[in-house]
Amino acid sequence: QAGFVPDPLTVNSLIRHYCATNQAARAFEVYEAAGKRGAPSPNLLTLTALSESCSVASAAARTADGRKMWMSRSLSLYTAGQALLSERSSLNYEGSPPRG
Fold first, then answer.
1. What is the DSSP letter of 48?
2. Of 34, 43, 55, 52, residue with least CA distance to 85
3. Contact, 60 vs 32, CB < 8 A?
4. What is the C-alpha separation between 100 and 81, in angstroms, rounded?
5. Which residues make Cβ contacts (< 8 Å) with residue 40, sequence separation at least 6?
6. Cα(72)–Cα(8) distance, rounded to whole angstroms?
7. Is the dihedral of CA 21, 25, 26, 30 positive or negative?
8. pTM given for the model
């Protein structure tokens, strides 16, 4: 539906379901579609599940290009995970000691 932005729980659940059922391509479709619709970034558990799915899909790929595509996707997830960690480390939670 045009204009629909799925909530993080829905996105994370769908992605993890597809990863758990060896449907890496479908998991990536959900991940990319959610990003295009402005949904918040998946959590670290979901990024990890996606990365593991990339590894499985790469091992099962029949061509060198297929393996390269899945490993490239895995590296992009690593970058997304690093950005998420960086974003979280800059948050100042009430009652937490000052950073730096």
1. H
2. 43
3. no
4. 22
5. 8, 11
6. 24
7. positive
8. 0.75
Angle between helices 44-60 and 64-89 (to 10 degrees): 170
Q: Give me the residue label for tokens 């937490």.
A: 96
Q: How far, in Å, CA of 46 to CA of 48, rounded?
A: 5
Structure-token pair, residue 6: 């799925």
High-pLDDT (> 90) share of the chain, %: 50
Tokens of 16: 């993890």
Q: Which residues contact 15 (CB under 8 A, 6 or more apart)?
A: 27, 30, 31, 42, 46, 49, 50
Q: Which two tokens stand for residue 98?
A: 């000052």
More confident call, 38 vs 57: 57
Left if phi > 0, otherwise alpha if psi is -120 to 50, otherwise beta: which for 6?
beta
